[in-house]
Amino acid sequence: MNFAQSHHSTRGGGGDAMITRLRRVIHMRRSVFRWWVQNSTPTRWIRHFIYLLGALIFAIGVIAVGMFRLQANEIDNLTLSITPAIDTNDQVFQAMTEADSGLLGYQISHDLSLLTSYQDAYARTVTALATLQGRLDSLRVHDDIKDAIDSALGNQQYLAVEMWWTYAQGTEQAVIRGENIDILQGHALFNSFRQANAALNGHLTAERSQSLRDADRISKVRMLAVIITTLTAFLTTIVLGLRYSRSVSQPITALRDTMSRQREGEMDTHAREDQGSPEIRSLAVDFNALAEKNLASLRRAEDVSARMASLVDLSLTLGQKLSLDALLARVVESARKILGARYAALGVLDATGNGLAEFVTAGLSAEEEAAIGELPQGKGLLGAMIRDPKALRLDHISDDPRSTGFPPNHPRMDSFLGVPIVIHGEVFGNLFLTEKIGGPFSAEDEQLAQSFALQAAVAVENVRRYEQEIQLVKMLESVREIESAIRTATDIQQVLDVLCIELGERIGVDRVIVKTVDSDFNPLLDAEWHQPDLQSVGDRYPKLFPKVGGLAVELWESSQPRAITDFLTPQVQSEERAQALYQKTGARAVIFAPIGIVDRVIGIIYVIKVHQPHQWVECEVNLVRQVAASAAQVIVEIEYRMHQSEHIQRLERLERQQTNFVATVSHELRTPLTSISGYLELLSDGYAGELSAEQKQMVEVMDRNTNRLSRLIEDLLVLNRSDSRSVQSEAAEVSIYELIDEACRELPPIAKSDNITLDIEVGPIKSIVSGDRGQLKSVIVNIISNAIKFSRPGGVVTIRCSRDEVAGRIRIICVDRGIGIPAEDQQRLFTRFFRAANATEQQIPGTGLGLTIAKQIVEDHGGQVRLTSVEGEGTTVVIDLPLSTRTSL
Amino acid sequence: MSELVKTRILVADDDSDILDLVRFILTHAGYEVVGVADGSAALAAFEANPPNLAILDVMMPGMSGIDVLRRVRNNDAIKDIHIILLTVLAGDSDVAAGFAAGASDYVTKPVILNELLQIVKSFLTGDRK
Fold first, then answer.
1. Is the predicted ipTM greater than 0.95, yes or no?
2. What is the pTM of this model?
3. Strands B82-87 and B105-108
4. From CA A660, how far away is CA A723, in angstroms rounded?
5. SS3 state of residue B95
């Protein structure tokens, strides 16, 4: 269709159409250029340049080949045509010259042989002429004119040869016929030939020169053309390279750099969009767009991961052993960051649940905080959230009718998000966020905040538990420390004082009062501790706690301390004594703990907080209870110790008194006894005149009983001494051998009077015991004199001594054959003042102290006394004493 | 032993019965006895008219027998006089204290008079020193 139209218009256009077409072609060419310039993409560019380069290389080839062909033609001409033609022409000339010479010789000499060479030469001339003719015909030098000249000159020479030849034949004949020969004519003809030959030769030589020149020229032109085209190609290549480099390679390198920088994380790097070809520019634009997109998603990912990180951070926070305050601060700050709010706050409800105990904020500068001033207390939206713990999300705070607005200078807070923090169904507090950066809070934010609040709740719960654990540990430590503190007290008042101070300073309260009661529940002792800013209630005690006993009993019977959070509630205040306590001590929150042990009520501890109500935690109550229990124990112990030491003191006093008494009495007895025995001696010795037999007998009875009394006193003193002091105080090395020897010499004269034999055999043994020489001697004396005393007249008392090295002891055995001791009395022999029945019956003198004393002394020396006896047969006493460890020879 | 210059013995005891008893037996044995009832009087008697021998009770009001003994032993003029302590204190430590103070002998009450007399005689005849 298009073609037809075009054809139609062409046909219809006539001459004008031609011009139009031409213009169109020109126009087309311009627009093609413009299009090329405008739309050539690097690929096209490179393609075009490569085409151009190819064309140029092709042109170089064509030119080279063409020129070479031309040159070859010239050379062909030279070698195949012109030079052979010249040579042939020379041959013609030579052959003609020979022919002429032969002819001339013949003519002159008429020698026929000369004709042969003439004829040969002629034949050669003809051949050469023919060859020349052919060569001239094939000669294609430059143009037809020159070729024509060649032919003409060839023909001219041919004619001259023919003419000469005709003459030569005529001459030949003439010679034969003997006619005259016109030699001159021959010369002339030959000359014309020579001229023609020279002309041809000249012409051909000229042509050869021309041809050589041409070939040289063609060679130069070819060289030039090749150089030019090569140069052009070279330049084109350079231009192509440069352009390629500038519009493709450089931008691509830059782009690659950008990409690798991007890959390395430099997300802000952009490709240059004003560099390189449109293709590369658009690539850069695309790349930048992609990078932007990547960056955006990266930012989003970063944002998400930041939120995640914050959440993880928060979770980690849960794991850490933070204090509750530190945790709340972390929660608030994390919430602010994660939710992208300018401000965040966390309000912790107080014990009543109606107000805020704490308000932790984040994002507020010092100035802003100063501008806000006091913490909110249940007004406006925060109050509303306290009363109605539900999530609340507002684009503008002022939208909510419950909002009460802000005080002047308050930082701008417009968007609002509040979620309650609920722990075990109980509202712990609220998380508030205001001023979402970059727009109001979204539903997504609300969800996030709620899950955040959930996590915060878990965290708070964990920390609370942890703090409770810590508190428990601290409580136990405190209890221990308080207990060890009160254990240092030496009396009960001190226990109470220390208890008050320790408890007050450790538990962080305002006042601690301790009261004790007596067995009738009347106030007994008291102690008090209070913070320095408070006044002592000291002198008001009696009036203040008139019924302390009643309360103590009440508490002890309930076996529980009573903890009161708020003393000012009407319920508590309805009690008279509660009112009194509040008025006197300012108590707002109190722990009453009874001090008691088993069924005994000792007193009561008041732990008081003054200014604010206080929700006592289990730990605090337990601490007070534990301390009360410790105090009770310590008080009872002190009482016991006091009683005990009192008892011991009394005993000691008694003991001292007794010892002194015995000593005094003994001494006091001895003085009159001295007089009695002295005067009796005087009487019996006859200083007052001879006594009658009857008088003498009476004096003897008196004397005997005086002696008995004297011995009794003696024994009492010994016993008293060994009771009242440590025997070993006068330890010395005592030889048993010497001891027995001395004892026997000190025995009362009774042995001799009754004719009793002492069979003493201690051998050469020099056994040494460590002890009090005097006491040990009195033991030996006592035992031996007993044996003598209970022996019948004429009896034998045997004393033996042996050493047991293995057991490290010495054994002294004293055997008599006396009256013995009744079996039933043997058990009680070592008790004070006990005397065996047969001894008293037979009026054998004795105090009943001897054996007791002996036993005590031996035992004090680490030994033992055993007695075996058969009534009527005799008694054996065995004394074991440890050998001295220092010397045992 | 001259009849004119009797050997004089000082006896000090706060119990007059015992003082009489000792005085009786010594006088009967032929000695001149000076009896005093307390330590101060005994010391005064020592210094005023030194006896040949003295028998002192220990527990006396005021100055004790031990005190007197020490004073005498510290007085060069009379320090060599034989002094026998006669006392109810019979404990080992009492005896030791008596000898430590310089007693020539230590006799506990109640005493067998004959034994006491023998002791006195042994000192005065120079059998004991």
1. no
2. 0.38
3. parallel
4. 12
5. helix
